[in-house]
Design a protein that fits this description.
Length: 395
């Protein structure tokens, strides 16, 4: 079964310029060829889709997903829902992602629960990854297992909690034993100005995880944790809302990536209007959120200028965004100084580099046919990514 997408534009996030008038033949989930529409090869008996006026975009990577959680203004409370309910959220999130052009979900934290399907007690994201594998209507999942935190850092029952550095190491490696693809540390402590672990303690974990052939990423909203992450050479920092010059310089030198989640703050700003929750809606709350947004934008700007490898994520579920909001992150990145095509790169091929998945977020002949079609030019206007017309997933 083959399909010809005829006479579309192509936006691959590699340059600011669209390729116009292109046809793409897909056969058995693989891109057979890409040709100018006026010099197509014989497509045989392919079904022809007239894609005139649409733009083909590589399937996006949401670098910061929490598949088992729904997001919204009560996002933290939802973590205590039953395992059955969490898995239902995941089913819904899979639909939201795939229908909005997201092909890859990098899951950076799920509660540890007994999975009703296989009875295994581990991060629920791991069973989902395994069960969804090979199904075109689900995202490709790479999952970190659960968050590994210092005790009392986040609400009880969500994360795996370590009391000391030895436990930190043991519980982190436990995630790999459970089947995690990479691990996720949590570097915001109970006191925002003090990182919960020292650079030496984190370095020991990084060495042990690398020994096992996996990568370490770390949640660090505050500067204190980001500094420790940079000194300890983790592979990636999530959020990084308060980076400074020294931090981004170290990150660039050591090849430490940043996954931005600016749209979390965008969503908090909307809660100032749509909820009565004090910390969003009160005048002080709005001010605090606005200040954090400015700081986060500056951090991304610094990181980008320093040449840090940048990926984008929604933080849906673990934050307040929803699983079909990745376009919001791309918009937020452009508001932080990236060109729209650079922001698109952060959720396509650069995100693929962070995942170590060379095919993720790319369109090429002989490569997997994972792309979607929108209206408008996302290389100059990220809002085009909201206007999804159809998706083409290889499965
Ligand atoms: Zn998160």
């Amino acid at each position: 079964m083959s399909t010809l997408y005829r006479d579309a534009a192509i936006a691959d996030g590699r340059s600011p310029t669209l390729r116009l008038g292109m046809s793409v033949l897909v056969k058995g989930g693989v891109i057979e060829w890409i040709r100018p529409a006026d010099s197509e090869e014989d497509p045989g008996d392919a079904e022809v889709i007239d894609a005139g006026g649409a733009t083909i975009v590589p399937g996006m990577v949401d670098c910061h997903s929490h598949l088992t959680l729904p997001g919204g203004s009560h996002w933290i409370a939802r973590g205590n829902d039953t395992p059955e309910q969490l898995l239902r959220y995941a089913e819904h999130n899979a639909k939201l992602q795939t229908n909005s052009g997201v092909r890859w979900a990098r899951d950076v934290g799920a509660p540890v629960r007994e999975d009703p399907f296989d009875g295994r007690k581990r991060a629920l994201s791991l069973g989902l990854r395994d069960r969804w594998h090979g199904h075109a209507d689900y995202p490709y999942v790479r999952a970190a297992g659960s968050w590994v935190t210092r005790a009392s850092s986040i609400p009880l029952g969500l994360a795996v909690e370590a009391e000391n550095a030895d436990e930190l190491l043991r519980l982190t490696l436990q995630q790999l034993d459970d089947g995690a693809d990479f691990v996720k540390l949590y570097l915001d402590g109970p006191d925002p100005n003090t990182a919960p672990w020292s650079a030496d303690e984190v370095r020991r974990v990084v060495a042990a995880v690398h020994e096992r052939g996996a990568k370490v990423t770390a949640h660090a909203g505050r500067l204190s944790g980001s500094r420790v992450c940079a000194e300890a050479s983790v592979d990636c920092i999530e959020h990084g809302f308060e980076l400074d010059e020294d931090c981004v310089r170290l990150m660039a030198e050591r090849g430490i990536a940043l996954v931005s989640t600016l749209s979390v703050l965008k969503s908090w700003m909307t809660f100032g209007q749509t909820t009565t929750i004090e910390r969003f809606a009160s005048p002080e709350g709005r001010k605090r959120v606005a200040d954090r947004w400015e700081a986060a934008r500056s951090s991304v700007k610094l990181a980008h200028a320093a040449g840090v490898l940048l990926g984008g994520g929604t933080d849906f579920g673990g934050g307040s965004g929803r699983a079909n909001h990745l376009a919001w992150e791309v918009e937020a990145l452009t508001e932080s100084g990236l060109q729209p095509w650079e922001a698109l790169a952060a959720v396509t091929w650069k995100a693929g580099e962070i995942l170590d998945e060379p095919e993720a977020g790319r369109i090429s002949e002989g490569g997997r046919a994972d792309f979607f079609l929108v209206h408008g030019d996302p290389l100059s206007d990220p809002s085009a990514l909201w206007r999804v017309w159809r998706v083409a997933w290889a499965g």
